[in-house]
C-alpha cells in the first residue's frame, strides 16, 4: 500500500447530518500507455463487479493503466523500489482498519483512492493459459483491498487480505464461470 493521495481540504463541504451517498459513484479508467492493447470497457466491467462484491460501489475510484517505465517511476518515488510492478494503490483513507468500509462525513469524501495497474508488467507475466483480463481483475482486486486497509507485511495481515481476495474472487467466479485465484496466494 502506498500512502499519499491528493485531497483539497479547502473544497470540503460542511457536514450534512443524515446525508446519504448516491447509489453508485464514478469509476474512472484511464489508459496512459500504448505498450499493450487494452479494452477499457472490458476492464471497467470487471472492476465494477469487484466493487459490487466488496460493497464499495458508492465510492469514487480511479484506475490508471500504465507501462513499465511509468509504474517503475511511481514505484521508485513512493516505495523507493526502482523496478516495475503490477499494482500500486493510493488510498483516500490512509488509516482504515482492514476490511472496514469508510464512513465519510462529507459528500466529497465518497472516494476510495486510485489504483495504478502496470498493465505491461501484468501482460508480460501472464502465463500462456491465463486470460489477460482475468489477471487484470485479480490485480485490481488486490489493489482495491489495499484501498480498504488490507496489507500483507506480516503473515497475520496477509492471511486477512488473502481471505478477503479469495472471498471476492470466488463470488466473481460463480457469476463468470472462471477460477480466479488471489494475487497474494503465494506471499507467505
Please specify the SSE layout and strand pairing.
Layout (H helix, E strand, L loop, with lengths): L26 E5 L8 H15 L5 E7 L1 H12 L7 E5 L19 E8 H7 L6 H16 L7 H22 L12
Parallel strand pairs: 1-2, 2-4
Antiparallel strand pairs: 3-4
Helix pairs in contact: 1-4, 1-5, 4-5
Short description:
By secondary structure, this protein is an alpha/beta fold. The chain has helices spanning 40-54, 68-79, 119-125, 132-147, 155-176, and strands spanning 27-31, 60-66, 87-91, 111-118. Strand 1 (27-31), helix 1 and strand 2 (60-66) form a beta-alpha-beta unit.
Q: Kindly report how far apart the N and C termini lie.
A: 17 Å
Number of distinct beta strands: 4
| Side-by-side strand order of the widest sheet | 1-2-4-3
Main beta sheet strand tally, sense and closure = 4 strands, mixed
Evaluate the radius of gyration: 16 Å
Overall pLDDT confidence: 88
Which structural class should the secondary elements be placed in?
alpha/beta
The low-confidence parts are 3-19
Helix content: 25-40%
By DSSP (H or I, 4+ residues per run), the number of helices equals 5
Percentage beta strand: 5-15%
Please provide the ordered H/E string of secondary-structure elements: EHEHEEHHH
Shape by Cα distribution: globular
Describe this structure in words.
With 188 residues, the chain is α/β, with parallel strands linked by helices. Helices cover 38% and strands 13% of the residues. The protein contains five helices and four strands. The protein has helices at residues 40-54, 68-79, 119-125, 132-147, 155-176, and strands spanning 27-31, 60-66, 87-91, 111-118. The chain has a four-stranded mixed sheet with strand order 1-2-4-3. β1 (27-31), α1 and β2 (60-66) form a beta-alpha-beta unit. α4 packs across α5 (155-176). It is globular, with a radius of gyration of 16 Å. The chain starts with 26 loop residues before the first strand and ends in a 12-residue tail after the last helix.
Amino acid at each position: 500500500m502506498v500512502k499519499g493521495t491528493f485531497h483539497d481540504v479547502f473544497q470540503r463541504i460542511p457536514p450534512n447530518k443524515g446525508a446519504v451517498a448516491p447509489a453508485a459513484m464514478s469509476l474512472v479508467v484511464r489508459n496512459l500507455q500504448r505498450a499493450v492493447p487494452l479494452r477499457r470497457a472490458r476492464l471497467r466491467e470487471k472492476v465494477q463487479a469487484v466493487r459490487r462484491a466488496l460493497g464499495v460501489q458508492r465510492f469514487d475510484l480511479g484506475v490508471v493503466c500504465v507501462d513499465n517505465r511509468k509504474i517503475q517511476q511511481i514505484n521508485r518515488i513512493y516505495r523507493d523500489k526502482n523496478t516495475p510492478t503490477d499494482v500500486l494503490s493510493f488510498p483516500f483513507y490512509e488509516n482504515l482498519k482492514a476490511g472496514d468500509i469508510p464512513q465519510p462525513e462529507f459528500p466529497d469524501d465518497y472516494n476510495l483512492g486510485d489504483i495504478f495497474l502496470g498493465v505491461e508488467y501484468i501482460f508480460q507475466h501472464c502465463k500462456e493459459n491465463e486470460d489477460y483480463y482475468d489477471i487484470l481483475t485479480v490485480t485490481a482486486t488486490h489493489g482495491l483491498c489495499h484501498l480498504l486497509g488490507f496489507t500483507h507485511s506480516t503473515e497475520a495481515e496477509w492471511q486477512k487480505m488473502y481471505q478477503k481476495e479469495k472471498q471476492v474472487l470466488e463470488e466473481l467466479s460463480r457469476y463468470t464461470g472462471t477460477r480466479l485465484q488471489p494475487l497474494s496466494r503465494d506471499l507467505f
